[in-house]
Amino acid sequence: MIHFEYAEKLYESWPRPTCLIVDGPYGVSGFPGDQHKVERLAEWYTLHIEAWSRCSTPETTLWFWNTEVGWATVHPVLLANDWEYRCCCIWDKGMSHVAGNANTQTLRKFPVVTEVCAQYVKAAAFYVDGRKLSMQEWLRYEWLRSGLPLRVANEACGVLNAATRKYLTADHLWYYPPPEMFERMVQYANRHGRPEGRPYFSLDGIQPMTKNAWAKLRAKFACEVGVTNVWREPQLNGTERIRGIRTAMRYKFTSLHGSQKPVRLIERLVRCCTDPGDVVWEPFGGLCPGAIVSHKLQRHYRAAEIVPEFYIAAAERLTTYDQSLDAAPTGTVRAHGLGVLRAMEACLQGEIGVSHALPPFDSH
Questions:
Q1: Of 44, 147, 262, 299, whose CB count within 10 A is highest?
Q2: Boundaries of domain holding 99
Q3: Which one of 159, 191, 215 terminates a domain?
């Protein structure tokens, strides 16, 4: 589902995301509405980041696209809103990106052929007597509350010393206990711990957490063999590059969107941190590559876009991208997509603020 609307007006009505793909302002005047200076990015993103934090769960992974300095500028805001940094991925577009456009005789820096995509996860938080505890702190707190010595956690888990050395440690060597080990600690503490304190490891004070509930307190991630954090992918060209007429900033790019992302890279992001049926958000949709990927991988999808040309191109792209596939859209779906395009013609005249959607592409 793609909306022609400001994302901040939609967040609270969207289902909670498992994957959040952020490809918004870079602070380089790259599209109508982009910030002109990178110094303004932190303030601009703050309200959005606060909303993402409210709407996300510990299963949510956030991918933040930007320039290296743009990401560095916004990074502290993400940390301040309980997003845990995982990794910075580099999109290396190769020399073809600057071929014919870089005069080494006048440049005062090396030609830039990269963008970054930083990975964050939503840290789980636990509240005890008005105090906010991390997962590490809460595990140790609950075990100590049971009155049991730390060393017997090893017996509970059937290990030599991994429970005390990894799962219940208070230092930087802490490891997330796998669901099976967590379940063993929970069962042991509730069986042998002080009766007056039961239940232990409970979020509602009634029932102890199950291993399945525990597994949902961490973001999903499946690492494809051979993939690293450096993505050598040439700049888009050929049929995947969307062409079109820009009503603003025509001087800057010959293509419709100056920072169009390869579907292949977006698919990598979605595939590694979601399962079929999960929800993907693209708050600043652009040409909405996540919609194509989500349709293909059977994920639910929500996006917002406010530049009319981008919205119309994204809608048309969705109605036509899979014509060659067995599961091509029906005539009804195509007719709906064309109807949306006609309705959006008025927006090209400046009637911003109308909200439309493409429900057929939320069928998965």
A1: 299
A2: 2-124+219-362
A3: 215
> Residue 21: pLDDT above 70?
yes
Q: What b/e string do you get for 150-167 counting C-beta neighbours within 10 Å, with b at 16 or more?
A: eebbbebbebeebbbebb
Shared domain for 236 and 332, answered yes or no, is yes
Pair 6, 108 in one domain:
yes
Tokens linked to 82: 């309980």
**Same-domain status, 115 and 32:** yes
Reading the block at residue 342, the tokens are 């006609």
Amino acid at 341: L
pLDDT in tens, 262-305: 999 999 999 999 999 999 999 999 999 999 999 999 999 999 99
Per the CB < 8 A criterion, the answer to whether 188 and 146 are in contact is: no
Domain boundary among 215, 233, 261: 215
Same domain? 73 vs 170: no
Looking at residue 116, what is its pLDDT?
98
**Claim to verify: residue 117 and residue 251 sit in the same structural domain:** yes
**CA separation for the pair 69, 256 (Å, rounded):** 25
Whether residue 207 sits in one domain with residue 109: no
Range with lowest mean pLDDT among 28-42, 125-139, 188-202, 217-231: 28-42
**Max CA separation in the chain (angstroms):** 77
Q: What are the pLDDT digits (tens) for 66-86?
A: 999 999 999 999 999 999 999
Q: Residue 21: which CATH number?
A: 3.40.50.150
Q: Tokens 């709906």 appear where?
A: 336
Residues 6+ apart with CB under 8 A from 289: 260, 261, 262, 263, 266
Domain shared by 303 and 275, yes or no: yes
Same domain flag for 131 and 44: no
User: Rounded to two decimals, what is the model's pTM?
Assistant: 0.87
Under a CB-based contact definition with an 8 Å cutoff, are residues 168 and 139 in contact? yes
The mean-pLDDT minimum among 12-21, 40-49, 249-258 falls in 249-258
Distance between CA atoms of residues 21 and 87, nearest Å: 15
pLDDT grade, residue 222 (50/70/90)? Answer: very high
Report d(CA 126, CA 361) in Å as an integer. 36
The domain total for the chain is 2
